[in-house]
Every structure is written in structure tokens, then in C-alpha cells.
Amino acid sequence: MIEIRNLNKTYHLKTGDVKAVQDVSIRIGDGVIYGVIGYSGAGKSTLVRCLNLLEIPDSGSVTLEGTGEITLKGGKPYLDGKVMTPRQQNSMRRGIGMIFQHFNLLDRCTVFENIAYPLRHTGRSRKEITQRVRELLALVSLEDKIDVYPSQLSGGQKQRVAIARALAAEPRVLLSDEATSALDPEATESILVLLQDLNRKLGITIVLITHEMAVIRSIADRVAVMEDGRVVEEGPVYEIFAEPKAEITRKFVSSSLLGKLDRLIAEDSDLVKVQPGEKLVRLMFRKDCVGEHLLTTAARRYGFDLNIILANSEYLRGNPIGGMAGIMSGDRENIEKGIQFLRQNHVSTEVIRDGDADGAACAEPVSVS
Ligand SMILES: Nc1ncnc2c1ncn2[C@@H]1O[C@H](COP(=O)(O)OP(=O)(O)O)[C@@H](O)[C@H]1O
Ligand SMILES: [Mg+2]
User: Fold this and answer.
1) Buried b / exposed e across 237-271, counting CB within 10 Å, b at 16+?
2) What is the count of structural domains for the chain?
């Protein structure tokens, strides 16, 4: 279990203070894959670096299984009421492996040497180290690359080596900071499958930092959404997808399910233009309302038309979830009633453009449920 309480980190720059992490409190259960999503600059990397004290937070506390509660006072970490010694910090860090976007491999060393690196000075014999490196390479399906150099590997293979190295000291936790962001879609998929596999096989807790909702959707159990150093929303991935509450979460979710909609709006495509009496809406369906003919019922009952522009549905953790964007037209009052009906039936309904509002071309959402 990892528990972060009221964590703060501010960078003091000549140009002013940057509050990179502000009052963050999250709890990460043992053996889960916990996602942290946010745009660039949201504070994700700072948060994970604070977790293993690569960055010393200003205040708050971090409780780690096997170490205890580390409290931060005056820019120093305390354990059991005393300032942590470098030895204590190192021992804590050994319990946490880390992988990055750019792999951080030693280019002049072979795959074997890269993975063996964290095993030096651990009292193991050369034979034991070789044995362990082979085990780790088997775990990431790269046994045949033991003697090659990083430059001879693809991006996905480099990340596998980095994962093997991160696991060398048998950490309880693996921090992945944008580990798939430099990879093509196929390699991304294979690394995500590997991470999920390691999570199941080894029971290792994974903290998955990313700016892509597709990554979260694919393997995370829970997710925290960060904006301006704060966690603005947190919960099980299905719940966050089905009923995103914060504006930024809605953006992430809809870009994942209805990727093209934002582009159509940005391009001011004819498809998303609304006339007086029309509303451009974005609907999100969850497991308890997908499949019921709610839309048809609403359209019949209230006599509006819906011209569908985009629709997508998929399974998330075995449960269906769907998104749809379209233009509603008809009597204004009936459209309003139809929207109320959909919302009452747990269809998250967002009016993106209102043909009757002032400045109807405005792309900002005007109302949200
Ligand atoms: N070492 C640093 N010194 C000064 N500012 C930093 C440093 N690291 C990060 N920041 C600033 O803190 C904010 C959060 O950055 P970061 O944690 O890297 O965000 P993310 O990983 O979500 O992109 C940004 O405004 C960034 O410029
Ligand atoms: Mg980052």
C-alpha cells in the first residue's frame, strides 16, 4: 500500500514560484495498476519523483509498505521522528523500480550489463547475477538479446530491458513515467500487455503515469486525474469513464471515445455547425443504460430529431461503455425535456453548441450534466 497525504512541492524560480504538486492525497492499494493522467506540466512526474524521494517534497507524508510513514518537514524527510539517513533513503528506493519514456539505458553497455548494473554491490556472486539476469530476460521475453547493445534494439525492446533492470532488485512497486510515450502503437500495446502480465504474475503494484487515456483504459484499475498540481478526480477507471465529473476528465474521456469530435470542432467542420433550433450534444452511455433504447424513447416521447455525427462503443473491464455526438433539432422546450430525460437515465449529456445561444459558433460547452 502507498499512501500519499497532503503532499506539496513548489519550485522557486527567478520568474516566480511553480506549485508543481499541491495538496495531493491518494491511496494506492497493493497489487493494483494505478494510473495518473494529466496534460504536460500537470505535475505527474514531480509527484512520482516525490514518491521515491528523488525529489524532496516540501510537506505532507508518504507511507510505503516495508518502510513506514515518511513525513516531510522543512524540506527534509523524517522516518520515526528522525531525519532519514542516506542509507535509509537508498533502501527505500530499492523497493521501488522506475521506467521512463526514454529508457535511460547505458548505451556503451550490453543488455546483460545494463540489467546487472543494479545488482552490483548486493553481495551476489557473478554466477548468481548471471542467473538473475537470465530470469529477468525471460520475464520480458528477451533471452536472445543478452549480449547485444541498446543501439541494436527497437524502442519496445529497449523498454523491455529497462523493465528488466527496474525489476532486478525485486521491488514491490514499479513507477512508469510515460514509458510508452515514445513508442509506436504496436510496441505500446506489447509493453502494456507486459506490464499487466508482470502485475498479475509478480503481484507488483504499478503506478502508471501518462497523458493518454488509451493507456489508462487499456490496463489501469484506478486513475487519478491531475491538473495544475492537484488531483481533480479519482476513482475506478470504469466509473471515471462512465461519469467523468471534472471538465478536464471529460476532455480526456471524450477524446478517447470520440477522438474525432474535438478535431471537427477545431476545424469548424460543416458537420458540427448548428442552426437556430439545433444543439450539438455529446452523450456518454454506461453499462446500465447502453442497450436500452433510451435515445429512441426520448426522441419519440419528446418529438425531437437526432442526427448522429459520431458514435463509438466498447468494453471496459468487461462492461460496455459508449459515446455519441449528434445534432438535436426540433422544438426548444422538447429538446430540453429530452435532455432532462436522458440525464435522469444516467446518460451523461453535454451541450457543446447551442444554435439559440449568443455566439452560437462558440466551441465551449455551455451546459453539462
Ligand atoms: N526541476 C524543476 N525545476 C523547476 N520547475 C520544475 C522542475 N520540474 C518540474 N518543474 C515544473 O513543475 C511543473 C510540473 O512539471 P512535471 O511534474 O514535469 O509535469 P508533468 O510530468 O505532468 O508534465 C511544470 O510547470 C514544470 O515546469
Ligand atoms: Mg512528466
Assistant:
1) bbebbbbbeeebbbbbbbbbbbeebbebbeeeeeb
2) 2
